[in-house]
Design a protein that fits this description.
- The strands form 5 sheets. Strands 6-9-12-15-18-23-26-29-32-35-37-38 form a 12-stranded mixed β-sheet. Strands 7-10-13-16-19-24-27-30-33-36 form a 10-stranded parallel β-sheet, with no helix packed on it.
- About 20% of the residues lie in helices and about 30% in strands.
- Helix 3 links the parallel strand 4 and strand 5.
- The protein has 6 helices and 38 strands.
Length: about 350
């Protein structure tokens, strides 16, 4: 694909292009690569000034650059074609879709699928081999269900949703449109409900259900539990990475992102646009406000106000954590200083 074809497909996201100044520099782009691995014929991107040195080092034939005249001039001097935009990483993501489309089978139902007669199927659905769909399930239009998926009774799957191989959808789960459930994920599994008695644990049946709103994605081997009563809700366009656990009765807002190995205890409430980095743990019924960011391995035992950035365990403001971390590295030195001062005081 010629470089000018790519820029035409990306408009109006393109703010400027080297083609306006160097129309003869119109390389053929055969693929994409990270900027430090790119070779002739490939396109890459520079995401901010901290990667500026890569302009001189890369062998890429074309780059997506931020709005920075210095970087643009560097690329032009080296003979690299470029596109300038306010969000280079976002544009690179858009370019990927020009070169790669994920595998999707043509509509059809494999003869080895087991489908209860009561199931309501929409149009243009793909159902792969060894899929099991129990009674009173509703499947929307253009849904893609890969092999070995199991769907329990009374489930509703929204249009254009993709259920990847070997995921399991338990009873009374509802997914919106354009959801993606990756391999090994379990949606609507039983919440951890046991009541202590003198004779041991009494099992509390989990009769509630899980609701995923439109555009939710759930990573491989993640689990979202249904509660004893009521619902577990995942808001529109929220994304869960692999190995995430959402316990019973959690309420997660819109546009949240939960990275790998995040764990939410029962009844946790997240606002909108919350980001939880890898291995963050949130305690039972904690409330996390809109726009909160928790850095990796943060333990959150209490409510967090909107807009805060927190770190460490138990969670503290990120700025305080950074100061404490700097001091922590100097603890041996500080300890020796204290010992010397103590001896000096005792000797006086």
């Amino acid at each position: 694909m010629k470089f000018n074809e790519i820029t035409e497909k990306l408009n109006p996201a393109v703010i400027d292009s080297s083609l306006t100044k160097h129309p003869h520099n119109n390389p053929n782009i055969i693929g994409l690569a990270p900027v430090d691995e790119a070779i002739t014929g490939q396109l890459s991107y520079i995401d901010g000034n901290k990667f500026a040195t890569m302009v001189d080092k890369t062998a890429a034939s074309a780059l997506i650059l931020p709005i920075d005249e210095t970087l643009q001039n560097q690329a032009s001097k080296k003979g690299i074609a470029w596109i300038a935009t306010q969000e280079p990483r976002l544009m690179f993501a858009q370019v990927i879709s020009l070169f790669y489309q994920p595998f999707r089978p043509a509509p059809g139902i494999h003869p080895n699928a087991v489908i209860d007669p009561s199931v309501k199927l929409g149009k243009d659905i793909y159902i792969g081999p060894h899929v099991v769909i129990e009674r009173d399930v509703t499947i929307g239009d253009n849904v893609c269900i890969y092999p070995n998926v199991v769907i329990y009774p009374h489930v509703s799957i929204g249009s254009y949703t993709i259920l990847h191989a070997n995921c399991t959808i338990h009873e009374c789960t509802q997914t919106g449109s354009n959801c993606v459930i990756h391999s090994g994920a379990v949606i609507g599994s039983e919440g951890f409900g046991f009541v202590p008695t003198p004779q041991g644990w009494f099992k509390m049946e989990q009769s509630g259900y899980v609701i995923l709103k439109d555009g939710v994605e759930v990573g491989c081997n993640s689990t979202i539990d249904r509660p004893a009563v009521g619902t577990t809700n995942i808001g529109r366009n929220t994304k869960l990475d692999n190995l995430v656990h959402v316990a019973h009765s959690c309420q997660i807002g819109e546009n949240c992102a939960l990275a790998g190995q995040v764990g939410l205890a029962g009844g946790v409430k997240l606002g909108n646009n919350v980001i939880l980095a890898g291995q963050v743990g949130v305690a039972n019924k904690a409330k996390i406000g809109d726009g909160v960011i928790a850095t990796a391995q943060t333990g959150i035992p209490h409510d967090i106000s909107s807009g805060e950035i927190v770190s460490s365990s138990p969670a503290v403001p990120n700025k305080l954590y950074l100061k404490a971390s700097a001091i922590y590295k100097r603890l041996p030195e500080i300890y020796q200083t204290l010992k010397r001062l103590q001896k000096k005081i005792e000797g006086s």
